[in-house]
């Protein structure tokens, strides 16, 4: 007795479908157990960047920048550090640099305006040791028409204490 040639073709189709399902399940399982660390880092970096812009906007919107940087009080750097300590989570390191426009003539030159560091890092290497650093740059014009550029760097805490 001979086997029906049509049945052999049906069996090959079932075999190919089963193999495709096994391959699909294997790929799905491998993707589930492995993760791309760069994608995770990018997500945190975007959150830090968004947080930095939100903090800078809030400083300008609530007149904190005008009362500290704009008026140039004697210890404005410490006042600004206290405000940043309050606004940012304790697990985030920050470093704020304020640049002032030196002269309105061409070419525009900005010089560092803060006399002391505005940061909550105990170690200067904290920003070198962490893999996640985000920064936001913010242009601020005070009521007396002086221009300042604020650069806020944020890093995930716990790495470079």
Bulk shape:
elongated
Number of domains: 2
The description of the largest β-sheet is:
5 strands, antiparallel
Total beta strand runs: 5
Helix/strand-derived category reads alpha+beta
**Could you report the average pLDDT, rounded to the nearest whole number?**
82
Q: What series of H and E elements makes up the topology?
A: HHHHEEEHEE
Integer-rounded radius of gyration: 28 Å
- CATH topology descriptor of the largest domain: Ribosomal protein S3 C-terminal domain
Oligomer: single chain
> What is the count of helical runs?
5
CATH first level of the largest domain = Alpha Beta
Distance separating the two termini: 82 Å
Residue ranges: pLDDT <50 for 5 or more in a row? none
What portion of residues belong to β-strands? 15-25%
Helix content: 40-55%
CATH architecture of the largest domain: 2-Layer Sandwich
Characteristics:
alpha+beta, Ribosomal protein S3 C-terminal domain, 5-stranded antiparallel sheet
Structural features, described:
The structure is a single chain. With 161 residues, the protein is of the alpha+beta class. The protein folds into 2 domains: 1-34; 38-156, Ribosomal protein S3 C-terminal domain (2-Layer Sandwich), CATH 3.30.1140. It has helices at residues 5-33, 37-61, 64-70, 76-87, 126-129; strands at residues 92-103, 109-112, 118-119, 133-141, 147-156. Strands 1, 2, 3, 4 and 5 form a 5-stranded antiparallel β-sheet that branches. Helix 3 (64-70) runs antiparallel to helix 4 (76-87).
